[in-house]
Design goal:
Length: 371
């Protein structure tokens, strides 16, 4: 226990102690609810009604793992719906993106195989790779030479793991070049679409579909807790991969399935998106507006996604700026080391379809006054 206390003290001394707080009532520049679906009354009411109409009995919980008492026909229907929506062959729903990524990477790569991952991938993918018996190596962020040099030395089946939008930088990978390399070295390509689901594509099918590469990417992870405004995640892959995950992904097997309510929320939200593409347009307009505001500041990381970054150096400096922005009425959080590398601490600004032009202008004025 002494060690635990020491580690907490170390965190406090380096201004990186994590603490729970309530989400504010200010202008939202921090949630992942990019389209406002988590707060959408129409979706909320429809889910309630659909459960009353469809459920054969009261269904507060799923009652068990999908492999025991927790599976129901509507869940499998939902998975077929997801496969169709995301333009894939088959889908499997997990309780969260975290559970999906850990289950996927811990089970599919085998002893003797190699996982090559972009150094900026999400903690859940790294955790999955760590649990795998395969060897694992990071390559430099979005750096094709670094990836290729690792591909040349890789053994067994090789898995390349990237994100469609990097969660801490908001940038995209050089996808067509990575697809070429994956083909050349016969590697399996895995793309996490956590921050691109609901945001790209005609109806929010994601960035890979928008780019026209859905047939070239072997496995995609679409999370439902961000732009979809719900919870859970689906893996899109070939039917045999899905069958394998049902048999070997421990985070799927040994966990109670999501509540029926969560499944219905996902389905209603995806249906809603198909009928309200105007939300995607509004989000894109707001992203462009924020880009043109932030690009004049040193430390801006170019991004065309809803994640817009101002990089500063040092936890104290970032905390001071975010504290000031909070006082000015903006809900925004600092991203501290060790979440990002020391010296790369940042303000992470999430843009939404429901942010107004005035809010973005107010944000710019606040930044001007701070400097
Ligand atoms: C890239 C990425 N993948 C996976 C996850 C985990 O998803 P979930 O929040 O549904 O567990 C996140 C969450 O922040 C993420 O940013």
């Amino acid at each position: 226990m002494d060690r635990i206390l020491q580690l907490l003290e170390q965190r406090a001394a380096t201004h990186s102690l994590r603490q729970l707080s309530y989400s504010g009532s200010g202008i939202d520049f921090f949630s992942n609810d990019y389209l406002g679906l988590a707060q959408n009354r129409e979706i909320w009411m429809s889910v309630h009604q659909r459960m009353i109409d469809t459920a054969p009995k009261i269904w507060n919980g799923s009652t068990g793992s999908r492999l025991l008492s927790g599976n129901h026909a509507f869940m499998e229907e939902m998975e077929r719906y997801c496969a169709h929506f995301f333009k894939g062959d088959a889908a499997l729903l997990f309780n969260s993106g975290y559970a999906a990524n850990v289950g996927l990477l811990s089970s599919i790569p085998q002893k003797g195989d190699t996982i090559l991952y972009d150094e900026y991938i999400h903690a859940s993918l790294k955790e999955g790779a760590r649990l795998s018996l395969a060897q694992r190596y990071g390559f430099k962020h979005n750096n094709l030479e670094s990836l290729e040099s690792k591909l040349k030395r890789a053994t067994g089946t090789v898995f390349i793991v990237i994100e469609a939008v990097y969660s801490m930088d908001g940038d995209h990978p050089p996808l067509s070049e990575i697809i070429q390399l994956a083909k050349q070295y016969n590697a399996v390509l895995i793309v996490d679409e956590a921050h691109s689901t609901g945001v790209y594509g005609t109806f929010g099918e994601g960035w890979v579909v928008e780019q026209g590469w859905s047939n070239e990417v072997d496995i995609r992870i679409h999370t439902m807790g961000k732009a979809i405004g719900a919870h859970g995640a689906c893996i899109i892959a070939a039917p045999k991969v899905i069958e394998y995950l049902i048999n070997f992904a421990r985070s799927f097997i040994y966990s109670t399935a999501m509540s029926p309510h969560s499944y219905f929320t996902i389905q209603v939200a995806l249906e809603y998106l198909q009928q309200h593409t105007v939300l995607l347009q509004k989000l894109k307009t707001n992203i462009r507006l924020m880009q043109s505001t932030l690009c004049t500041y040193p430390g801006y990381i170019p991004s065309s996604s809803p994640i817009q970054i101002l990089q500063l150096s040092g936890n104290k400096a970032v905390q001071a700026l975010s504290g000031y922005l909070n006082q000015q009425g903006f809900d925004i959080k600092p991203i501290l080391s060790p979440t990002v590398k020391e010296g790369q601490e940042r303000i992470r600004c999430c843009i939404h379809a429901y942010n107004t032009e005035e809010e973005i202008q107010q944000f710019n004025t606040a930044l001007i006054n701070y400097v």
